[in-house]
Structures are given as structure tokens and as C-alpha cells.
Amino acid sequence: MSTESQIPIRTKAPKRFAAGLAVFYATVFGVTGTYLPFFTVWLKAIGVEASWIGVIVATPSITRFTVLPFITAEAERRHALRKALIITATVTTLGFIGLGVLRGPLAILAVFVVTACAWTPMVPLTDGYALKAVARFGLNYGPLRLWGSAAFVVGALISGVLADLIAPEHLIWVIAGSAGLGVIAAFGLQPLDAPGTRPAAPVRRVALLRNPAFLAIIIPAGLIQGSHAAYYTFGSIVWQGAGYSGTTIASLWVLGVLAEIVVFALSPRFTLSPALMMLGGALSAVLRWLIAAQDPPLAVLIVVQLLHGLTFGLTQLGTMGLLIRHAPSHVIARAQGYYTACSGLAMSSAAMLSGVLFARYGLAVYDLMAAMALVGAVVVALSRRRLEAPPAGDQPHSSGSGG
């Protein structure tokens, strides 16, 4: 059993953790809400070509399987998740400010590499922080995580309105401003480790990667989430080319996240096993990308966006539920790092390939995304018995964890 579970629980501690988590999740995903819909629009507005856009946008995904696992593991080893979040939030803000004054693709790529090294660990560090609180206080992951999705909606809506009011080459400042809010919110997080507690027995860095059940979690989850690469990279560009306004584009993004919020909010009532949640998310992704490849009209596109609640939200809930079950709580942040690295490898590969395919074949790039999700579904189906088996040893588990 990890040291966190031995720390006395104070009556107000769950409320403090929940409040700090809600605010910080909101700031972290508020940045994503401004970045995803309009960062590529900003790149295009300042003259960056489509092939370069694919490379630049792939940068965060590359850092997820290179730098990120080391940052999450080191932060957990030092019991310094809160400090790590403060530092990464600060560097992220400075990085986006630096991007605002650049125009050449090589310079943008160089600065964005540094920015991404700080930015990409923020979500797994926050999820690791949250899952430690889930294990210690019996909190529900879904209702905590939905505040991040809600902030994404607000960020996307604000960006959509501003996209119709300001020149697209100035949209980078909206992203930088939202990132700055994360620095303030990071100081509101409560430390997880009580003074004087002894650390748990060290775990070898590769021990998790030798666990077949853990690999059966992160590989399909990475493929399913990585299948969103073309959507994240070229979704707004496709919609802009179809004549949709900035407000409509933002609304389409928001619609998908609203569906995600509903899934997170209702998650404590779900009776599906985490493995079945992942399988449902994978099959929904196959359907979603096959429809997206047909250049659907707005009415069908709305349905496609509503599927985001399943393709992302249900997959995320299933993944977190399985990680809580199969990864010891004292290495949960490290497990998050490995999972994010796996999804980053899938996402970066798909993003770079989608840049080439989109330039040549347009919307047919979504067929590749459907194939990725299908492979993920097959892996989950074949591994279901292993994933649903009781974990070896004493693993912390909560019904509120999402599984």
C-alpha cells in the first residue's frame, strides 16, 4: 500500500482537493479550448504551409513519448506534482508568448518544441494528481474532469467570437492569455504528500512496461485517442474552407465537448466495466471517422461531433478506471506518463502522416483514423479477460474512479 493511503484524512481535505482540481483542470483545458480550434488557423494566417503545419502540430505528441515520461516519473519520485505543475504552467505561458512574435516555420517549430516539453506533461501530471485523490478520498474522477471539458467549451466559444472580430494572425495571444491563467491556478493546488511521510518502496522505471495488463490498457487507448489526430489538426481548416464562420467552427468544437461533459457527469451511474467503455469508445471512433471522410453536411456533422462524448469521453473513463485498477497508487503519475507517451506516439505519427495525406487526398485522411480506432477495438476485445481480471496484489480501487 502506498504512503498516500496512510496519511490521515481531514474532513475538509476532499473539498479542498476537489476545488483546487476543478479550477486547475479548467485552466489546463481552457488553453486546449483556445489552441485546438484556432492554432492551425493562426499558422495558416501567418503563411505556414500545410506540410509544415502537420509537422508543427505533431510536436506536442512527440514530446509525449520522449520528454514527458521522464518529467512525470521524476515529479512523482520527488513527491513534487504540485511544484511540477507550477513550473510547467509558467514555461508554457512564456512559450506561447514567444510564438506570438515569430513568423518563420523553423523558428516557430524550435520554440514550440520547448513550449510542448512543458505543456504536454500538464495533463498527465494533473490526472495523476487527481487519481491519487480518487484513491485517497474516494472521489469520482468523471465529475472532477468535467470542469476541464467545461472550460474547453468556454475557451472555444471565446476564441470563436474573437476569430470573427480580430485578425487571425492575432489569435495566438488568446492562447497565451489563457495559459497565463494556469500559472495562477497552479498555486491553488493542495500538496499531496504530508510532511514527514516516508516514500513507498521504489519501483523500477520499466516495471509497468513489463506488465501485460498495463500494456493492454495503454496501447489500445493510445490508438483510439491517437485516431483523433486528423480531426485535431485539420478539422477547423476543413470547416473554414467549407465556408463556416469562426463562431460556427467554435460551436462545432463545443458541441463535441458538451457531449463529453455529459458523459463525465453521468459516469458515476455507469455500470459498464472499464474495458467495455474502451471498446465502446473505439467502435464509436470507427463510425465517426468513416462518416467524417464523406464530407457530411452540417446536420450530419452535428451528429459526428456528438460522438466525441464516446470516442474521447468514454475511452478516457475506461482508461482511467483500468489504470486505477492495475497501477499501484504510488506510481500512478508514472503510469499516466507512459499512457500519454503511448498516445503521443500514435498521435504524432498520425498527425505527420495526416499532413501529407490531407495535402494529397483531403478528407480521405479520416479513413486512416478509422483504421487506427479499429485496431484499438480489436486489441481491447482480445484483452478483455485480462483487463477485467482482479489485479495481482493490493491495488487501490474506488467505485468513483470511473470503473
UniProtKB/TrEMBL annotation:
Keywords: Cell inner membrane, Cell membrane, Membrane, Transmembrane, Transmembrane helix, Transport
GO CC annotations, alphabetized: plasma membrane
Topology within the bilayer: Multi-pass membrane protein
Origin: domain of life: Bacteria
Keyword DNA repair among UniProt keywords: no
Ranges for domain Major facilitator superfamily associated: 21-362
Alphabetized SUPFAM superfamilies for the sequence: MFS general substrate transporter
One MF term in the entry's GO annotations: lactose:proton symporter activity
Main location group: membrane
Pfam families in the cross-refs: MFS_1_like (PF12832)
Transmembrane segments: 17-38, 50-72, 84-102, 108-125, 146-166, 172-192, 213-234, 246-266, 273-292, 298-324, 336-357, 363-382
Localization of this protein: Cell inner membrane
NCBIfam families: mfs (NF037955)
The name this protein goes by in its record: MFS transporter
Organism: Rhodopseudomonas palustris
